[in-house]
Amino acid sequence: MHLQFIGATRTVTGSAHLLHINGKKILLDCGLFQGRRAESTERNRSFVFEPSSIDAVILSHAHIDHAGNLPNLVKSGFSGPIFCTPPTNDLCRIMLMDSAFIQERDCEFVNKQHQKKHLPPVEPLYSVEDVPPAMQLFSPVPYHTPFHVTDGVECTFYDAGHILGSASLALTLEEQKNGTRKKVMLGFTGDLGRPNLPILRDPEFIGSMDALICETTYGGRYHTPVEQMPAQFASIVEKAAQRGGKIVIPAFSVGRTQEIVYTMHQLKLAGRLPDIPVYVDSPLSTNATEVFRKHPECFDEETLELLKRDSDPFGFERLTYIRDVEESKRLNESKESCIIIASSGMCEAGRIRHHIANTIDNPKNLILIVGYQAEHTLGRRLVEQDTEVTIFGEVHERKCEVVVMNSFSAHADRNELLAYFNNFDKKRLDKIFLVHGDIDQSEKFSTALKEVKFRNTAIPVRLECCEL
User: Fold this and answer.
1) Are 334 and 245 a contacting pair, CB within 8 Å?
2) What contacts 309, CB < 8 A, 6 or more positions away?
3) Per-run averaged pLDDT (10 residues), the chain, 468 residues
4) How far is CA 10 from CA 4, 142, 199, in A?
5) I want to staple 272 with a disulfide (CB 3.0 to 4.6 A). Which of 124, 143, 267, 327 is the partner?
6) Residues sharing a CB contact under 8 Å with residue 267, sequence separation 6 or more, in sequence order
7) CATH top class, domain 2-221+410-467
8) Is this structure's pTM higher than 0.90?
9) Whether the Cβ atoms of residue 241 and residue 232 lie closer than 8 Å to each other
């Protein structure tokens, strides 16, 4: 039995790991790669394996960098089951459709520009028609319920505390070869959340493992303590509001948007939020919030207690959820001071790019970055304070303020990851594969693990195969 690391190797996007056992192939995640446009297009369109040869997919959660290439996988010939938790199933139903819709609209917009420049047209990776066939293959399984994947493979989901429905995987592998049986416990953290974040339960330990695939998004960094987040957020927003500017927040539609709205709700109740309108400009965020309301079983005790006093932790006075594209366009034309939350989180698609294009040249405005930005994305260029950025093929001079607030991250930091590892038996955990992190973050976390006596850490390169 062996693993091949297809994506999220020495980078944070395109999560995909291929398990070979007993002549079967099981894909752990099937995410979209985000980065340089040409490279992203090539990687996402072309699989390094034959899709029809994959026997099953096990999905850790619904974020597009983990689930976003599933419609393309099915369109290309995959026909096996896609295992996930029930909330992940519900979120993927809206997120994959939204991804397809955005691709179609972005292609329409770009093709208008291409037509003027006599350039060839571009096509979406997949269309809205490709999503229903993929959803028909989804097989939801609750947390803590072991399920059969293929011959010799059983899996159990544990709450990863990252977004609604996110799971860490505990895989029991039994290889039959030459009349002998070999048993291995393989864990996959998926994306691990932070303890004590609002709304969701804390990450659960998956039990003792022989080998582990672990994310390292913030393996070498430290977040602001959770309890300081609301005050920090209020201070940043208040300064921008006093200038009379717009506050534009790129945020993942699932998880980050709900956390920000929840935090603003609490600040509003405490009288600490500026009295300006707040807009969640994303049909996906609006639909995802409805899915959150549907799954209170995933909420932590604090949120459940709030629900007893307030029926809607995701709504408050002066908050408006926007679906209609014409309303979104009016936001761009408006000169009022306001807060606009829109996706995508890395500014690579969707309405956020239009909002940034319309606010970036005004020093009164603020772009507030609240999540990780992969290399070569528009979000990363903003984090790096580039003075010029290209949006929809047009160069824009950046005059607005850009502030980074990583404490909202739904990824555990170095200390939180180490605390999770303290649960493992160091003598038993023989192989640790560090993925889903830029190389500097993976290397720093590898050093940290060695300092506390964990052994055999590896940082795979793309397409590398490792025996179990």
Assistant:
1) no
2) none
3) 97 96 97 88 95 98 96 98 98 93 88 90 95 98 98 97 96 90 96 92 97 97 90 94 95 87 90 93 84 92 82 80 90 91 86 93 95 88 95 93 89 97 96 97 98 96 96
4) 14, 31, 30
5) 267
6) 230, 233, 234, 273
7) alpha beta
8) no
9) no
